[in-house]
């Protein structure tokens, strides 16, 4: 046990030394060679404190926690107030660091936090298996090291948050009174907040990382464990403190609200808690970056290195395809016969129309594409039939699918199958599927949002999420039928973008456990030689799928952000093929396409063989501006531009990104620079002219 009210060295690694204060819980990481010190608390000089009371205590806390008190009301406290000042902190030295045990006597809650220095990185973890709840209080959430990544208003630098493609929060832009940033990693949990009947209209956090650059030094923080239960938070100095800060928080007990009615039919909301805690212990690794690596480009390179070391990810992006084309096939609309209602089939696109579109594109020089077929399997879009891996005969069936693959030999054709959502109806009335449960023990039911309000479309289709057992079973059934279907690839829809919990009392699992099931399903497919694609772009699919769809190229643009950066594509370009969100639904397709071209994201298009107006009363009513014949020329032009710029770059990692005025500059590891001019006037860079609204490929000398 360590004692005393002074910083004590507990571990060393090269020029770095980890120091802890047993009395306060403060940690410091000192680099004697660089003269850099990273502190868990902001360094305020005595007499210059700018925060007081509870907020000041939060600045000097290793943990900020949310809990349920005896009145079943959510409350918040921090480790300084609830533990340190009550004599509840004990620090034990370990082989390479220390364990801080925060006993909160008034709450009956004990939380151990381990800090380890290993291979130059600082590893901070909450030892979930040793958390104790010994009174009537329950721990909901922990924010870990809330001000380890913080800076005062007089300092220079920025925070990196992985919102969408990535965003920077510059210290110089703080003080604007912007709302804090708080988003769950891998998007919201579909099994929670059902009472709200709404959908978040934001870009999601696709990568479990955040970072800070300050005064020429930087770190990248990677959530090594517990990412599925994590959220990333950031604040500016216009908030509760004078500091700009970024951190991560972790769910321990999941909470939710439900509505109940009394005898008079008055509805009130009731807080529910999951009795089982999250299974995985959270761990955050802080990697320190210096000199040329101390910026967001260096953070991307460090994350690449982490992925190669921890997940065996290797550069494997495929060449030969310049666009991704998502065709929508069979759907249905309400109709009646002699007053009897039924669902009438509607063909949004037939195989013959896909062939016709591909022939038109080939005539214009498009030699390869990723072709994704939504709703071409038996039963159509929002498939109501068991998974048989069979193409619908009304669209042309297996023979037409074979003709398409023969015609488009240089393209990849993917059948799209949804094993996650069950839309019910038809044969599914007799489905053997089990479904994920919400906290109030009913099946999780969701609906698409209205584009005007983002509230649920109560008149539209609904779906349930299948349990992990059903997911495994359906994956096996699909795999068994794929040989007969003759497909060259499969997109397992929604697995790359929706990660949910199942609160069933007997077979339930948290999001981290379901993620392991997703991976097992993908590995089972890959072992059988099936080429895989994934939509949603959550980073956990990067090493499993050969094509990632819906890759973000912008952030959500929150007031707190200073600028958007292409951090996502900087990390994954070269490792897997990347395809965009649909170009033909973008507000400014030309500028959107320019961003895709510079960062090596394939332009993707939603396409139909019909005028989408006839789909207004079908589940495909979200489609507009998708008639394929209207987009042939634009697709051909985008394909030509992508091919011209990216010849030989598909397997190259991105080395750096920067901006010079209206110019965005992306440097690939072989020295090629793609310079994109997002301004309205001609620009020049290193003697090359870049016209407004265009991208230019610039070859740099060997050994650049």
Give the percentage of residues in beta strands.
25-35%
Output the structural class. Answer: alpha+beta
Task: Tally the beta strands.
Answer: 42
Approximate shape: globular
What low-confidence regions span 5 or more consecutive residues with pLDDT below 50?
Answer: none
* Helix count from the secondary structure assignment: 10
The largest sheet is: 11 strands, antiparallel
Determine the N-to-C terminus distance.
Answer: 53 Å
- Level of helix content? 10-25%
- Please state the average pLDDT score: 90
Question: What does this protein structure show overall?
Answer:
The chain is of the alpha+beta class and 704 residues long. Helices cover 17% and strands 34% of the residues. The protein contains ten helices and 42 strands. Strand 26, helix 5 and strand 27 (412-417) form a beta-alpha-beta unit. Helix 4 (351-363) runs parallel beside helix 5 (397-407) and helix 6 runs parallel beside helix 7. The chain is globular and about 80 Å long.
């Amino acid at each position: 046990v360590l004692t005393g009210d002074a910083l004590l060295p507990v571990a060393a690694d090269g020029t770095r030394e980890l120091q802890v204060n047993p009395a306060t819980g403060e940690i410091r990481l000192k680099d004697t060679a660089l003269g850099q010190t990273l502190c868990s608390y902001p360094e305020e000089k005595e007499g210059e404190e700018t925060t007081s009371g509870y907020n000041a205590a939060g600045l000097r806390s290793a943990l900020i926690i949310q809990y349920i008190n005896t009145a079943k009301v959510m409350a918040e406290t921090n480790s300084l107030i609830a533990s340190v000042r009550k004599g509840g902190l004990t620090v034990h030295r370990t082989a390479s660091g220390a364990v801080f045990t925060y006993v909160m006597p008034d709450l009956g809650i004990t939380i151990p936090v381990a800090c380890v220095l290993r291979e130059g990185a600082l590893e901070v973890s909450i030892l979930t298996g040793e958390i104790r709840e010994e009174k009537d209080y329950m721990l909901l959430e922990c924010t870990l090291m809330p001000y380890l990544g913080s800076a005062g208003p007089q300092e220079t630098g920025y925070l990196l948050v992985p919102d969408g493609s990535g965003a920077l929060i510059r210290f110089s832009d703080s003080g604007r009174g912007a709302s804090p940033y708080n988003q769950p990693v891998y998007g919201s949990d579909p099994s929670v907040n059902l009472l709200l009947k709404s959908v978040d209209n934001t870009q999601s956090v696709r990568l479990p990382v955040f970072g800070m650059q300050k005064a020429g030094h930087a770190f990248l923080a990677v959530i090594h464990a517990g990412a599925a239960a994590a959220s990333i938070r950031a604040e500016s100095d216009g908030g509760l403190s004078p500091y700009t800060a970024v951190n991560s928080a972790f769910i321990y007990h999941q909470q939710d609200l439900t509505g109940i009615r009394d005898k008079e039919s008055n509805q009130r909301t009731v807080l529910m808690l999951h009795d089982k805690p999250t299974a995985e212990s959270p761990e955050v690794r802080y990697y320190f970056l210096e000199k040329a690596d101390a910026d967001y480009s260096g953070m991307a390179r460090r994350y690449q290195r982490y992925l190669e070391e921890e997940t065996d990810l290797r550069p494997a992006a495929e060449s030969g395809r310049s666009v991704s084309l998502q065709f929508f096939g069979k759907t249905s609309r309400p109709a009646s016969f002699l007053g009897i209602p039924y669902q009438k089939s509607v063909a949004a696109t037939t195989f013959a129309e896909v062939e016709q579109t591909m022939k038109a594109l080939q005539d214009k020089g498009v030699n390869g594409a990723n072709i994704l077929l939504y709703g071409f399997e038996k039963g159509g879009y929002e498939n109501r039939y068991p998974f048989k891996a069979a193409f619908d005969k009304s669209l042309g069936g297996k023979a037409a699918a074979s003709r398409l693959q023969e015609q488009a030999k240089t393209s990849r054709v993917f059948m799209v199958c949804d094993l996650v959502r069950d839309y019910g109806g038809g044969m599914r009335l007799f489905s053997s599927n089990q479904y994920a449960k919400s906290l109030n023990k009913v099946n999780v039911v969701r609906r698409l949002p209205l584009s005007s309000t983002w509230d649920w479309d109560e008149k539209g289709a609904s779906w349930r999420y299948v349990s992990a057992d059903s997911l495994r079973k359906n994956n096996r059934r699909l795999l068994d039928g794929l040989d007969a279907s003759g497909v060259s690839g499969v997109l397992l829809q929604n697995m790359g973008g929706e990660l949910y919990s199942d609160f069933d009392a007997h077979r339930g699992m948290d999001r981290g456990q379901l993620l392991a099931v997703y991976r097992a399903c993908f590995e089972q497919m890959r072992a059988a030689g099936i080429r895989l694609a994934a939509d949603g772009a959550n980073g956990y699919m990067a090493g499993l799928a050969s094509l990632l769809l819906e890759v973000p190229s912008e952030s959500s643009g929150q007031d707190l952000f200073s600028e958007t950066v292409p951090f996502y594509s900087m990390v994954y370009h070269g490792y897997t093929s990347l395809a965009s969100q649909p170009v033909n639904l973008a507000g400014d397709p030309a500028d959107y396409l320019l961003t895709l071209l510079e960062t090596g994201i394939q332009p993707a298009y939603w396409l139909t063989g019909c005028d989408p107006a006839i789909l207004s009363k079908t589940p495909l009513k979200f489609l507009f501006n998708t008639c394929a014949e209207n987009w042939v020329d634009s697709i051909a032009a985008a394909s030509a531009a992508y091919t011209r710029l990216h010849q030989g770059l598909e397997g190259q990692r991105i080395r750096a990104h920067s901006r010079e005025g209206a110019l965005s500059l992306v440097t690939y590891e072989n020295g090629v620079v793609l310079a994109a001019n997002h301004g309205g006037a001609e620009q020049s860079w290193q003697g090359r002219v870049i016209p407004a609204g265009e991208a230019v490929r610039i070859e740099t000398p060997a050994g650049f």
